[in-house]
UniProtKB/TrEMBL annotation:
The ABC transporter domain, residue ranges: 343-509
Keyword tags: ATP-binding, Membrane, Nucleotide-binding, Transmembrane, Transmembrane helix, Transport
TM annotation in the entry: 92-115, 127-147, 203-226, 232-255
Cross-referenced Pfam families: ABC_membrane, ABC_tran
SUPFAM superfamilies in the cross-refs: ABC transporter transmembrane region, P-loop containing nucleoside triphosphate hydrolases
UniProt source species: Rotaria magnacalcarata
Keyword Mitochondrion: no
One GO CC annotation: membrane
UniProt name for this protein: Uncharacterized protein
Localisation: Membrane
PANTHER family given in the database record: ATP-BINDING CASSETTE SUB-FAMILY C
Lipid bilayer topology: Multi-pass membrane protein
Stretches assigned to the ABC transmembrane type-1 domain: 92-307
Alphabetized InterPro entries for the sequence: ABC1_TM_dom, ABC1_TM_sf, ABC_transporter-like_ATP-bd, ABC_transporter-like_CS, ABC_transporter_C-like, ABCC_6TM_D1, P-loop_NTPase
């Protein structure tokens, strides 16, 4: 989402040295020192290449390419390939900075060995040679510090961008899921995907270059050891290989414990959510101690696994392991042909072998068409609209919506915020469009009567609205989306005849 503040980021106009030494942050640090705190208005605008919308769009496009290849070539979609197409080869190119870093680390002890010869009693090294070796030791250490910090910074930026892209992709997938599919996913699993699995890409990118730099470094160190100690160098090599196999064993134990912790965490979050949602029932029947005992037992199991995992020496190699996740299902795609709706419904039902079923419904809708579905209560009008929007779980037939669509349910939904935010619902404010929407939804007189107009807080902790006001705000929110297709589920049921006539003429038609 694009930032709406007016505090441009000084990184965009900073020169190369300022970016290298991060001196462009000095103004912000000085302000923090003077104020002893920082406010939201003090923070700079987000850099364009770090905006979540752009990153998620790139990741989604790469993932859709994987799905298209699966359809055309029957090639299994891979999140790894989609990630490589999104981030490119930049992390590996930045990883070339590790070559001078590791060479400096290796050169520093070698230079110190030659410098120690100066302090021997029979040394013939001149003083200027000793000073030269001393300066070389300092420069090697300085080179390591100066190069490693930019390398670490850029690898963290790459990891952050991919974590944001993963989180955005998960969020968009959740928005596309039907209500039946959402009921099959626990909140704990979603929390684990966002907080744990998506963040693993940061660790992977941070240490990915060790896969190729570490073997080169080992070879160079073995050659140097051979020059000094000959066959004794193989003792160090054998010891290193022994540690490697030990670390691999501990890594497997670590992954096993990590998987158990994820399952226990998922269960604990699910249990806490259900307990909080049903707190009135828990209090009514005095079940506090029973639920507390159950939650504490799950928490103690999680703490036990955490203690076991903390004693595993996994800091050497296990950082290279990424979590293996399931491929995300294919998101809904909007075809490139003209706007409209095609419906050839053979059968749709909420449950398998249910008595109530929608059967043999076929029609086409073109731009400008107004189609009304009329029937008795319980005849399936709402189920039909939810079939068009993809909410019904068991479905046989073909439904295609060409263009963006907006579904307005029969029961209006209002969240705790201002009326303005309820109508905008995350979109940018357009004064002309907002006024047209308010007029079409017959909200002008209501906004004039409310204490703070469009900025009046409504919802659970705000101003109480009538059923008709909620319905019109719901309609205004849908109209502000400026969608191509609107699915309206009896939105005029809570309104009187005069307001209904106004809405039908100005809003529906």
């Amino acid at each position: 989402m694009t930032s709406t503040s007016s505090n441009p980021n000084p990184y965009l106009r900073a020169n190369l040295l300022s970016r290298f030494f991060h001196s462009w942050l000095s103004e912000l640090l000085s302000k923090s020192h003077q104020q002893q705190t920082l406010h939201l208005s003090d923070l700079y605008d987000l850099l364009p290449h770090l905006e979540s919308t752009k990153l998620t769009d790139q990741m989604e496009a790469s993932w859709l390419d994987e799905l298209n290849q699966y359809k055309q070539k029957q090639k299994q979609p891979s999140l790894l390939r989609a990630t490589l197409r999104t981030v490119g080869w930049k992390p590996l190119l930045v990883g070339l900075l590790l070559i001078p870093i590791e060479l400096s680390k290796i050169a520093q002890p070698i230079v110190l060995i030659f410098l120690m010869n100066f302090f021997e009693s029979c040394s013939t090294m001149p003083i200027w040679g000793a000073w030269l070796l001393t300066v070389a030791t300092i420069l090697a250490s300085l080179c390591t510090s100066l190069i490693y910090n930019p390398y670490f910074y850029w690898m963290q930026i790459f990891g952050l961008k991919m974590r944001v892209a993963y989180s955005g992709l998960i969020y968009r997938k959740l928005l596309r899921l039907s209500s039946d599919s959402m009921n099959k996913i626990s909140p704990g699993k979603i929390t684990n995907l966002l907080s744990n699995d998506a963040s693993q890409i940061e660790l992977v990118l941070q240490f990915i270059n060790n896969l190729w730099i570490a073997p080169l470094e080992i070879i160079i160190v073995i050659i140097i050891f051979w020059q000094f100690v000959k066959y004794i160098a193989f003792i160090a090599v054998g010891y290193t290989l022994l540690l490697l196999f030990i670390q691999l064993g501990f890594g497997r134990v670590f992954l096993h414990l990590r998987g158990k912790i994820m399952q226990v965490t998922d269960e604990r979050i699910k249990m806490m959510s259900e307990t909080i949602q049903s707190m009135s029932i828990v209090k009514m029947y005095c079940w506090e101690s029973a639920f507390a005992k159950k939650i504490l037992s799950v928490r103690s199991e999680s703490e036990r696994d955490n203690r076991l995992m903390s004693i595993c020496p996994t800091d050497l190699f296990t950082q290279l392991y990424g979590t293996k996740g399931e491929a995300l299902p294919e998101p809904a795609k909007v075809p490139t042909k003209g706007l409209g709706l095609q419906c050839n419904l053979k059968r749709a039902t909420w449950k398998k072998d249910d008595f109530f079923q929608l059967r043999n419904i076929a029609f086409d809708a073109k731009p400008g068409d107004l189609i009304c579905v009329i029937g008795a209560v319980g005849s399936g009008k709402s189920s039909f609209l939810q079939t068009l929007s993809g909410e019904i779980p068991y479905f046989d037939g073909k439904v295609r919506l060409y263009g963006s669509f907006c579904y307005v349910p029969q029961e209006p939904w209002i969240f705790s915020s201002s009326i303005l935010n309820n109508i905008l619902f995350g979109k940018e404010y357009n004064r002309h469009l907002f006024q047209r929407v308010v007029y079409a939804a017959a909200l002008e007189s209501d906004l004039n009567q409310l204490p703070q107009g469009r900025n009046t807080i409504v919802g659970d902790q705000g101003f109480t609205l009538s059923g008709g006001q909620k319905a019109r705000i719901n309609l205004a929110r849908a109209l502000y989306r400026d969608a191509d297709i609107y699915l309206l589920d009896d939105p005029l049921s809570a309104l009187d005849a005069q307001v209904s006539k106004h809405l039908f003429e100005k809003y529906v038609q």
